[in-house]
Amino acid sequence: MIENIKHTILDKAIELFKKNGFNNVTINEICEICNITKRTFYYHYDSKKTLLLDYFSLVDENIDNALKDIDNETTWLDKCWKVKRIYINGIANLNADILKNLIKIDMEQQNHMFSVRLNNFDPNMKRLRQMVIEYTRKAQETGEIDADTPAEDLSYCFASAFLGLAVNWSSTGGNYDLVEASKKYFDLIYKKISSP
After folding, report:
1. 72-126: per-residue pLDDT in tens?
2. Pair 140, 147: CB distance under 8 Å
3. Angle at 139 between CA 134 and CA 143, to 5 degrees
4. CB 172 within 8 A of CB 67
5. All domains of the chain, ordered by start, with CATH?
6. Is the pLDDT assigned to residue 53 strictly greater than 90?
7. Were 106 and a residue from 101, 113, 147, 179 both cysteine, which residue would form a disulfide, CB within 3.0 to 4.6 Å?
8. pLDDT: which is higher, 53 or 171
9. 23 burial level (CB within 10 Å; 0-12, 13-18, 19+)
10. What pTM was computed for the model?
């Protein structure tokens, strides 16, 4: 029951943030839409900031469902993109204002949520990154992509490029398709280098 209330608060708050902007939503409005008291809100979250940092728990709920048909992908590189797309979709489903505030809060609190290296902030994100590295290695072993660059470095390179894209996307008001732009970077970074 308690987790359901926490989930409802998070879900409804994200809806409000998307509609009205993070800075324009008050805790009173969140409580009103959730039909809870401030005391209940503060039982679950210290502030709007801590609530927003919990956003990826919503993404985490869908990871196993999104991965259930990964074996249907025909190549290791397709599997790699599918895993990366789970995280990218989680970001793209936010609006630019929410992402900008999420990045700002993460930087202020030094949570390293957006660290491009493996971290322990979110075990599911760590799991996805490890899957990407494994699929990248397999793609290299089968000749789908260049084997000269270590899989970890390719993953790091894409994560860095994506972080730059995400920051740019949020700072420009989300005026382009983040998933499409990410796919272009993915293709550039993971593209097999043909032998002469």
Report:
1. 888 999 999 999 998 888 888 888 998 888 888 877 877 656 655 545 556 677 7
2. yes
3. 150
4. no
5. 1-54 (1.10.10.60), 58-196 (1.10.357)
6. no
7. 113
8. 171
9. exposed
10. 0.81
